Every structure is written in structure tokens, then in C-alpha cells.
Give the backbone structure.
Amino acid sequence: MRKKYLTKGPAQTKKLGEILAKEILKANPGKRLIIGLEGDLGGGKTTFLQGFAQGLGIKEKVSSPTFVILRKFRIKNPRFKNLYHIDCYRIQKPKEILDLGFKEIISDHQNIAVIEWADKIKNFLPGGSLILKFQFVDKNSREIWLIKRKG
């Protein structure tokens, strides 16, 4: 599956995240959800995630956890309990992600894991993960490709 979105500013990127979160809550009951975000610095990954968290009903402020690498948010939903926001920007070696309990996080079907800089740990992402690739069109506009990994 491949789908392309075009956003023309941070507000639209955030709104796309919110819309996708609401759609995801309606689909695929009982399946874990792993979303990898890829793209250059300033490409809209965190902005998208802020909207995504809002779409899940999370009221807390979502910011990039670059220095702590991982943040956990509770979700008030019968299907999912937690949103894990993982930022791999500072990961030097892909295996470092395992020290954070990554396998346990992604094996729990009541968790949603959203991973910024997912290309750094691509070999650890399970089949069926969704990948969002953020590409600059101009200063404000982004092409965002949604790709489902095989498996």
C-alpha cells in the first residue's frame, strides 16, 4: 500500500496526523500498531505526531523526546492503552533500541509505537508497520508518503 498526501503548512500536517489517528482507531481491531516516521530535520515528523496524539485523545503536550529518546502517553480507548513516542535521532547503533525495551513495547497489541527517524532501526520494525516519509516540497509544503511494510 502506498498513498501520498500533500500538506501546505504545519497546521495541515498536524490535522493529517489527527485524521489518521481517528481512522486507525476505527480499523484493524486487535492488531498492534507501529508507525515509523522518516524525513529530514524540520520535515514535520513531530508536528504530525502532535496531531496524531490529539486524534487519540491525548491532552498532554507532545514534543520531540530527542534527549530522553522515549516518552509514554496513556490512551483512554478500549483498544489501545499506550502511545510510545520514540525518537531515534541520537541512536548510534540500531541495537541500542533494544535496551529501551523496544521488543516488549511492539509485542503488546495494546500499544501504539510511533518512531521518529525510523530508518535508523528499519531492520527491527516488524512486517505490517506503517512508514510515513516526509519530503520537502518548499519551505512550508510537504509530500507525505504512507507505505505499509510487507508482512
Remarks:
- The radius of gyration is 14 Å.
- The chain has one domain: 2-148.
- The chain has a mean pLDDT of 90.
- The chain is about 25% helix and 30% strand.
